[in-house]
Amino acid sequence: MIDTHAHLYSKEFDTDRDEVIRRAVGNGVSKLIIPSTDAGDFDAMMKLCRDWPQVCFPAAGLHPTSVGEDYETELAFVEKQLDSCSFVAVGEIGIDCYWSMDCIAQQRDAFERQIRMAQRHSLPVIIHARDSFSEIFAILDRIHTPDTKGVFHGFSGTREDYLKIREYDTFKMGIGGVITFKNSKLPQTLEIIPITDIVLETDAPYLTPHPYRGKRNESSHIPLIAQKIAELKNLSIEEVDKITSENAEAMFRI
């Protein structure tokens, strides 16, 4: 299986990071996509990927909640890294209207410019969309091309949101621990999302699936997410593993 979104360089893993990765591999998770959020965590992200080069694959980007007054400097840093190093994606990028609307104009600008960076470098994007689908769609409607592809990370949108994304025909939905939550509405939306449009993710250390909700999330929990999808889609877990892994390998070229 492939975890397409894990922040294993985070301080939550400082005491047992290697053990966490070994546990994931032992649980059938063979590859991890590791997105950065800003320049402050970039070195830690790259060290992790150097330490585990056959397992961890880096992405470079500026997270929307890291967009502030210095966002121009941060964007220049992302572009410099894309020019000098090899990455599997531009991410984590996007727009977040949940935590704050103070820098929404800067978030829009940062998102559009990073989409264009991805287009120039022929890389997929990893999109963070929290209470912001309309904002993101407005930008994608203007600048999307057939080569603009990626993953809507932590997808928890409505059926209408998915159908709009499907019109672009170049994106996958990243499904994580929320699918296992008791009161989640995501299972209803999943009814119309074919398995060919899904990749698995944890967003570790966040969004831990049931029955470990409330504890630190980690990549070894991917089988819990796959099992829930298998139940909802009336598939075997082997089918979910095979198809979502093929989706991830094709998207990120890993």
Spell out the blueprint of helices and strands.
Layout: E1 2-3, H1 17-26, E2 31-35, H2 39-51, E3 56-60, H3 71-84, E4 89-96, H4 104-121, E5 125-130, H5 133-143, E6 150-153, H6 159-168, E7 171-175, H7 186-190, E8 198-200, H8 222-233, H9 237-252
Parallel strand pairs: 1-2, 2-3, 3-4, 4-5, 5-6, 6-7, 7-8
Helix pairs in contact: 3-4, 4-5, 8-9
Query: Could you give a short account of the major beta sheet?
Result: 8 strands, parallel
Order of helices and strands: EHEHEHEHEHEHEHEHH
What is the CATH superfamily?
Metal-dependent hydrolases
The proportion of strand residues reads 5-15%
The whole-number mean of residue pLDDT values reads 97
In CATH, the architecture is Alpha-Beta Barrel
Looking across the biggest beta sheet, what order are the strands in? 1-2-3-4-5-6-7-8
| Count of strand segments | 8
**Percent of residues in helices:** 40-55%
Q: Which class of secondary structure composition applies to the elements?
A: alpha/beta
The separation of the N and C termini measures 13 Å
**Number of contiguous helices:** 9
**CATH domain topology:** TIM Barrel
Query: Which overall shape is indicated by the principal axes computed on the Cα atoms?
Result: globular
Provide the number of structural domains. 1
Low-confidence residue ranges: none
CATH class label: Alpha Beta
Rg measurement, Å: 17 Å
